[in-house]
Structure formats: structure tokens, C-alpha cells
């Protein structure tokens, strides 16, 4: 009888151990699956970085320059301005997008706040996204709120990576292969540099 009890206990222990291991493996698999399914943009880390960047570019004077307004087409504003500079040793490109009834360079110059619809920003982050020149993308409302797409995803990070439409797919066609249209010789945009002009040399290869 003792032998049978011991054997029964052993079977029970082994069964419980197997069950615990199976549950552990299931949890690990679910965790791995969630990591694999994490979207390329709109994560908490992306949004936190975007919020921090808004504060920094605001403080550094990247917003409301109004010195190089030009006319452009969709998906950005009909009237735009591009400002570049360096924040935390990262190249930052800020595009203010103006639109609405009666928008023109003259009307925006007179009342920019009335026509500002969005601010789109590119930040060069080393090692962030080697597939796409390490650019971080974000689209803000005029008050600095990170905007969302139609699916409710916040537009910050590797926006629309792998998708046929969106920031990355559009900017891949920039002729300089740097994802920056305003660096192209054929674009009618003049770029305003904010801050230490000596830092331009570090990013000279991107501005040819």
C-alpha cells in the first residue's frame, strides 16, 4: 500500500510540475507574441519621446519662424515652412502645415495661428530604424498634441512602416535617398536653420 501511495504522489507531483511548466511556456509564448505584434508606431515610448521633443523644439524656437513660407501640395498643408536644427545632438526637421479657406502666403504671414493645421517633425535617431535612415516621425496638432490616424493610432514613431501609404513610403521617393524632400535641388523650399550653424557640417551629407 505504501508503494502505491508513493507512486500516486509521484504521479501527482509530476502532473502538477508538467502543468506549471506548460502554463509557464504558454505565458512566455503569449509575451513573445505580444512583442512580435507590437505596432511600429504609436507605442507609449514613441508618444513619450514625441511629447518630450515638442517641448524641446518649442523652447529652441523651431515653431512660428514664418521666414520661408512656400506653396506645396498634399498630404501636407497648401502653405508650409521648413525649419531644421539640432536638438540633443539629433538632426530635427520641423514642417508647419497651413491650410483652410483663404490660405495663402500673404494670409499666413498676416495670421499664422488662424491657418496652422498641423506640425510634422522628423528626428534623426541613430539606430532607431536602420531600414529607413533612422528617422522618427510624428504629427502634432497646433497645440502639440500627438495626432491619431483613422484607426486611432497615435502618429509617432515608425509611422506606417511597411505600409503602401504614409510618412515612410512617401518620403522614400525623395531624390537624395535621405527621405528629405526639402534637401532636393528641385524643391521650391528654402530651409531655415535654427541654432548653432556650425553643427550643419555634421549633417552636410544630408543637405546636398
Listing every helix as H and every strand as E from the N terminus to the C terminus, the arrangement reads: HHEEEHHEEEHE
**CA(first)-CA(last) distance:** 88 Å
Gross morphology is: globular
Query: Proportion of β residues?
Result: 15-25%
Radius of gyration: 25 Å
Q: How many structural domains? A: 2
Sheet/helix structural class: alpha+beta
**Number of separate helices:** 5
Question: Which whole number gives the mean pLDDT?
Answer: 80
> What is the helix fraction of residues, given as a range?
25-40%
Number of strands: 7
Short description:
The chain has 208 residues and is α+β, with helices and mostly antiparallel strands. It has helices at residues 2-37, 44-60, 105-110, 112-115, 167-171, and strands at 70-71, 79-87, 90-98, 116-124, 135-140, 156-157, 191-194.
Describe this structure in words.
Helix content is 33%, strand content 20%. It is α+β, with helices and mostly antiparallel strands. The chain has 2 domains: 1-37; 44-206, no CATH class. Strands 1, 2, 3, 4, 5, 6 and 7 form a 7-stranded mixed β-sheet that branches. A hairpin with a 7-residue loop joins β1 (70-71) and β2. The radius of gyration is 25 Å and the shape is globular. The termini are far apart.
Amino acid at each position: 500500500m505504501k508503494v502505491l501511495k508513493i507512486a500516486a504522489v509521484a504521479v501527482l507531483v509530476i502532473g502538477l510540475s508538467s502543468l506549471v511548466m506548460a502554463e509557464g511556456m504558454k505565458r512566455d509564448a503569449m509575451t513573445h507574441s505580444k512583442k512580435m505584434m507590437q505596432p511600429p508606431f504609436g507605442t507609449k515610448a514613441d508618444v513619450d519621446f514625441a511629447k518630450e521633443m515638442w517641448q524641446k523644439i518649442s523652447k529652441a524656437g523651431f515653431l512660428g519662424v514664418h521666414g520661408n513660407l512656400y506653396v506645396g501640395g498634399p498630404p501636407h498643408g497648401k502653405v508650409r515652412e521648413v525649419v531644421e536644427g539640432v536638438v540633443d545632438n539629433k538632426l530635427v526637421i520641423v514642417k508647419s502645415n497651413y491650410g483652410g479657406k483663404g490660405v495663402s502666403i500673404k494670409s499666413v504671414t498676416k495670421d499664422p495661428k488662424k491657418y496652422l493645421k498641423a506640425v510634422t517633425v522628423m528626428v534623426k535617431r541613430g539606430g532607431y530604424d536602420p531600414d529607413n535612415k533612422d528617422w522618427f516621425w510624428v504629427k502634432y496638432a497646433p497645440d502639440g498634441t500627438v495626432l491619431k490616424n483613422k484607426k486611432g493610432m497615435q502618429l509617432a514613431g515608425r509611422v506606417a512602416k511597411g505600409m503602401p501609404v504614409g510618412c515612410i513610403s512617401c518620403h522614400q521617393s525623395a531624390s537624395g535617398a535621405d527621405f528629405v524632400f526639402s534637401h532636393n535641388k528641385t524643391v521650391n523650399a528654402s530651409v531655415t536653420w535654427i541654432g548653432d550653424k556650425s553643427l550643419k557640417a555634421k549633417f552636410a551629407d544630408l543637405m546636398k
